[in-house]
Design brief:
alpha/beta; Leucine-rich repeat, LRR (right-handed beta-alpha superhelix); 14-stranded parallel β-sheet; 3-stranded parallel β-sheet; 15 helices; 38% helix
Length: 460
């Protein structure tokens, strides 16, 4: 860029820039950035969001070009560190540069409230926590959101970060197994409301939750993945969920409203039979949270863990969670233990805000007692209900469509199951999928008929 271009850019356009993306690996972008830096007068006074990416060995020095710009209004910064190969690691020099860079946050970005650091490959450097802790101690008064994607921490390091950020409300991080137990320590209450963790073991996580004070936690989500077969603690999804429920209930004393657990493929591990069942006892602790509005459990399609959530427990959910809006229980099920039509009616009658339901049902018996139907229709909801039926059993599409349209004014049936293409869906379930597709078609017809009947009643 020649001097006249730089002058025109600085005079007429710089103050309009609110959102900036910089890729250090792009030679053209790097040349422009260096040209702007050499002017010594270029500023972005109204910059709000900055997103930068590049290789660690060259990215951090060049990042100073933008970071040094006076940007008093910047609110969000995202740094993505990519590598030339999967084995790329942060060098000691890179880590020190990053530490220096983050430590200057209070001066360079005094109004920053969201910081995202994305690594590649999840390499644990051992210096990230110290860098982040120092930075967060300085900017803790304004930082609200922290996302550490593919940057692994031990429970001790995570506790240090949470303890130093006194205004943090949302955090995402990857937790690895710690070589030593977490030592008790006095910590101040952390105002965090949303905590999302990727984990490979739950032993240290439950210790972490016991030693934290989370009185404001309303949303907790976790992903179990890459479980190491050589780990000293091998926990299945069932025991993981139970530990979460008991620990959060007994130790955090928080108004939990959202819980999510996702299981990813882990190799080399064969869970024991006694630990591979998610039943009423596993989910029992969560009934202690009356504010639950979003409850999600998703197991890997080839998981050894099986769900056995019957109609009786579904009714207990209905009574315990009156504010329930979204419920997902996705995984391999036992066909002998599935909620039936009356159980679904009971749930919808008590949770009128329910708009999304994903689980397997048994509608082979579609007849329902008149008393239950009267109660249900009296409490009929007017909102949209999306029903993801998974491996649900269907018998008579017309009766099912009639009942569902009596439940809600708008119903959508989704036959998606584990994101599997139709060609690998077991043959035994294909006939039910076809019936549910027919249900979805009939629902549209029945809904129009019921709407026409209501109009006639209003005219009369």
């Amino acid at each position: 860029m020649n001097p006249s271009d730089l002058h025109r850019l600085n005079t007429f356009y710089a103050h309009r820039v609110r959102y900036l993306i910089y890729d250090e690996t792009d030679p053209e972008e790097r040349v422009v950035a260096q040209s702007l830096h050499l002017t010594g007068t270029f500023t972005l006074p109204n910059l709000v969001e900055l997103h930068c990416s590049g290789l660690p060995n060259t990215f951090i020095p060049s990042l100073r070009i933008f970071w040094g710009l006076p940007s008093p209004r910047i609110r969000q910064i995202t740094l993505y560190f990519c590598y030339e190969d999967d084995d790329g690691k942060f060098s000691v020099q890179d880590s020190r540069s990053l530490q220096t860079l983050l430590s200057s946050l209070p001066i360079l970005a005094p109004k920053l409230h969201s910081l995202t650091l994305e690594g590649a490959g999840g390499a644990h450097t051992g210096i990230y926590p110290h860098s982040l802790e120092k930075a967060l101690t300085s900017v803790g008064a304004q930082l609200r959101h922290l996302d550490l994607d593919e940057i692994e921490l031990t429970n001790t390091e995570l506790r240090q970060i949470l303890s130093s950020a006194h205004s943090l409300q949302t955090m995402h991080a990857s937790l690895i197994e710690s070589p030593t137990p977490l030592q008790p320590a006095t910590v101040l209450p952390t105002p965090i409301k949303t905590l999302s963790l990727q984990i490979s073991s739950t032993q240290n996580l439950t210790e972490l939750l016991r030693f934290l004070r989370l009185p404001c936690l309303t949303s907790f989500s976790s992903t179990l993945r890459h479980l190491n077969p050589n780990s000293s603690v091998l926990l299945t999804s069932a025991l993981t969920i139970l530990k979460f429920g008991v620990t959060i209930r007994d130790c955090c004393m928080c108004p939990l409203a959202s819980f999510s657990f996702t299981e990813h493929l882990f190799t080399g591990v064969q869970p024991g039979k006694d630990d591979s069942l998610i039943d009423d006892g596993i989910l029992e602790p969560f009934l202690s949270f009356p504010n639950i509005s979003d409850f999600h459990i998703s197991l890997f399609q080839d998981s050894a863990t099986t769900m056995e959530i019957g109609g009786g427990f579904m009714r207990r959910m209905a009574l315990a969670w009156p504010n329930l809006c979204r419920l997902s229980l996705d995984g391999n099920t036992n066909p002998a233990v599935l909620p039936q039509l009356e159980d679904l009616i009971y749930l919808l009658a008590h949770c009128q805000g329910l708009c999304f339901l994903s689980l397997s049902l048994d509608f082979s018996k579609t007849m329902c007692s008149l008393d239950n139907m009267h109660t249900f229709i009296t409490a009929r909801g007017n909102g949209l209900l999306e029903l993801r039926v998974g491996l649900s059993i269907a018998s008579d599409p017309k009766l099912i469509a009639a009942y569902l349209t009596a439940c809600r004014s708008k119903v959508i049936v989704n036959t998606r199951w584990f994101s599997r293409p139709r060609r690998i869906v077991p043959d035994v379930h294909r006939q039910h999928i076809d019936k549910w597709k027919e249900v979805n078609t009939l629902i549209k017809v029945f809904s129009q008929i019921r709407e026409h009947e209501r109009k006639l009643l209003r005219i009369a």
